[in-house]
Amino acid sequence: MAIAPDERELLELESNSAIALLDNEEADESLWQQDCATAMSSEQTLSERQKRLAAGRNFPVIFWLALLHVGALAAPFCFSWEGLAVCMALYWLSGSVGVCLGYHRLLTHGAFKVHKPTRWLLAFLGGLSGEGSALDWVANHRKHHAHSDHDGDPHSPHDGGLWAHMLWLGWSIKGDAFEAHVRRWAPDLGKDPVMRWIGHMFLPSHILTGLVLAGVGQWMGGPYMAASLLVWGLFVRLVIVLHVTWFVNSWSHMWGYRTYETTDDSRNNWLVALLAFGEGWHNNHHAYPRMAAQGHKWWEIDMTYWVILAMKWTGLAWDVVDYKKISDRNR
Ligand SMILES: [Zn+2]
Ligand SMILES: [Zn+2]
């Protein structure tokens, strides 16, 4: 079993975060200090789960997730092959390209570089996954890597499998505390006004997607097809994308094999890897967080990496991080 440079990776993440904070001319020192002081004073007494519970329920998120699940219940009553095809296509576009490639490998870990318009487009596609803004997603995920399966991890199965899967989303910090959270963990995104605007477009983008799907369905085959494309292309697809992403946080920290010795419980889970376009090779990922490829053996299929390779070949992406190369280790 190979020993992964886990501590070095975390230090790098921490220092990148600090450097980005220093670069942020608008960084609010008082918020930053307040966040640290709050964290230090409560760290001794409250676990991360208890801190979230104390922050109160996040009703907009609870309502959003409940709405999607209730909407998906209509699926058997308006099935069509066209609806299923749209569902699968958008599952790949919002799940693999939006979340796995955009939110995760690019925006969270900097596994490759792209031009700014490509970065913004990928952030928009990530938002179409129904998983909130890039700022929130990236901040939570960087915090997960820094504290994985230890106190401070927002979603560790140590706090319960269902908590790690989805319950943790039901409680959240808000207002100034949320801003401090973004400044601490995602200052590079927080200082980008376009990225913030894309985050504000989260709900309108889903309403627009729903209107387009219903409109195209109506044009194709009347009210039944309109309902079919809307329910399968929006509600069913979002429920699938959400749970598949959540499986990475729950199943891939509970079941599977470990190739690398890491300080967390991350596992390589082939079922999650297939469903989540390569993200289920999660032990590989925790061992080498910035590495663009998450499948490290020839049979560990990583569909998201195929898209990164296609982007590299077409010039859309460059500086793709591969720790097997000495030059990338020193980057
Ligand atoms: Zn993890
Ligand atoms: Zn990650």
Summed up, the helix count is 16
Ligand inventory reads: zinc ion
Rg on CA atoms, Å? 20 Å
* DSSP summary, beta strand count: 4
- Please state how the strands of the largest beta sheet are arranged side by side: 1-3
Element pattern in H and E: EHHHHHEHHHHHHHEHHHEH
Q: What is the typical, i.e. mean, pLDDT?
A: 87
Q: Structural class of the helices, strands and pairings?
A: mainly alpha
Our estimate of the beta-strand percent is: under 5%
Proportion of residues in helical segments: 55-70%
* Number of domain units: 1
Low-confidence stretches: 1-11, 13-44
Distance between the termini: 25 Å
Largest pleated sheet: 2 strands, parallel
Global outline: globular
Tell me what you see in this structure.
The protein is built from 16 helices and four strands. It is mainly α and 331 residues long. It has one domain (2-329). The strands form two sheets. A two-stranded parallel sheet has the order 1-3. The radius of gyration is 20 Å and the shape is globular. The model is unreliable at 1-11 and 13-44 (pLDDT under 50). The structure holds zinc ion (2 copies). One zinc ion (ZN) binds at residues 144, 148, 253, 266, 282, 286.
